[in-house]
Design goal:
Largest sheet: 6 strands, mixed
Order of helices and strands: EEEHEEEEEEHEEEHHHHHEHEH
Number of helices: 9
CATH topology of the largest domain: Nucleotidyltransferase, domain 5
Distance between the termini: 44 Å
Shape: globular
Mean pLDDT: 93
Strand order of the largest sheet: 3-2-1-4-7-6
Number of domains: 2
Low-confidence stretches: none
Number of strands: 14
CATH superfamily of the largest domain: 2-keto-3-deoxy-galactonokinase, C-terminal domain
Length: about 300
């Protein structure tokens, strides 16, 4: 942790399933300190959230109450307190955070950003709404598609500052399961990925998505019979899964303005896959978006209302 004995005007929190990240924000909006730990929602009981937070922010608390604004899985049913899902269309920058169960420590005032829900087709997001708010804070006039690749990739249609619709694909989780727990794990070990093979696999699956299950086992068969290296096998697995995702999300990217915001290596893969279909894509690093979104949502709560 950096910035010991630094008092915060407020504290921003990104609390995921496997991680906890916090920032001490000064009255001028600057980041005065930041810290992180591996105490994500998935490893905590309900009584464990407040101690996990205090482990990181204790030195940032003054004598009075310090506002804490959190997003992510901390608001899930298994989190500190369940935050509601707000129906779309909705403006992420104007979401009203819920006040969590009163912390035992009187120096904390803890609030959670709600998630978003879609009635038809049914879908939910929790955490990404804050990234979207951060993106719109940077590009308030954006009208198009924001793709947020990750464990559960989100394709989000944005217009007039609102989430109009969205679609979730479990591509990242499927890749993780198949590469670590299936028969393919012997063929795709390592981190290197052959770019040309990846593009070929994307196009092949896009043209015949119904053959995905067969294509996946062919990765194992080719490695067994022909000694295909892991860089090629890994590229085929990634390309096949992303190709199937693009086939299912075609209305979101075909003829649309698309921005991909994610971890650089993964965002570049999505950009490569889309470019192969003739889509002009802008790529952003998603790392700053969550904090920008938390800052925008907090600012909106402090703005005077007009009648």
């Amino acid at each position: 942790m950096s910035g010991s004995s630094t008092y915060a005007d407020w504290i921003a929190v990104d609390w995921g399933t496997t991680h906890l990240r916090v920032w001490a924000i000064g009255a001028d909006g600057s980041i005065r300190a930041e810290a992180s730990s591996a105490k994500g929602m998935g490893g905590l009981t309900r009584d464990g959230f407040e101690p996990a937070l205090l482990d990181l922010v204790e030195d940032w608390l003054g004598g009075g109450k310090t506002p804490v604004l959190a997003c992510g899985m901390v608001g899930a049913k298994q989190g500190w307190d369940e935050a509601p899902y707000i129906p779309i269309p909705a403006k992420p920058a104007e979401l009203v955070p819920m006040r969590a169960t009163a912390p035992r420590d009187p120096r904390l005032s803890f609030s959670i950003v709600p998630g978003l829900k879609q009635a038809n087709p049914t879908d939910v997001m929790r955490g990404e709404e804050t990234q979207i708010a951060g993106f719109l804070a940077l590009e308030p006039g954006f009208d198009g598609i924001l793709c947020l690749p990750g464990t559960h990739t989100k394709w989000v249609h944005l217009s007039a500052g609102e989430v109009v619709s969205f679609q979730t694909c479990m591509t990242g989780e499927m890749f993780d399961l198949l590469s670590h727990q299936s028969v393919l794990r012997h063929s795709v070990a390592g981190e290197v990925l052959d770019g040309e093979t990846f593009s070929e696999a994307v196009s092949d699956t896009l043209s015949r998505p119904e053959r995905l299950a067969q294509r996946l086992f062919a990765i194992r068969a080719d490695a067994t019979l022909n000694g295909t290296g892991s860089a090629v096998a890994r590229a085929r697995l990634s390309g096949a899964l992303i190709g199937a995702e693009l086939a299912s999300t075609r209305p979101y990217w075909l003829g649309q303005q698309v921005v991909v915001a994610g971890a650089p290596a993964l965002a570049d893969l999505y950009a490569r896959a889309l470019a192969g279909q003739g889509v002009a894509v802008r790529v952003l690093d998603a790392a700053p978006l969550t904090l920008a979104g938390l800052a925008r949502i907090r600012a909106a709560q402090k703005e005077p209302t007009h009648t």
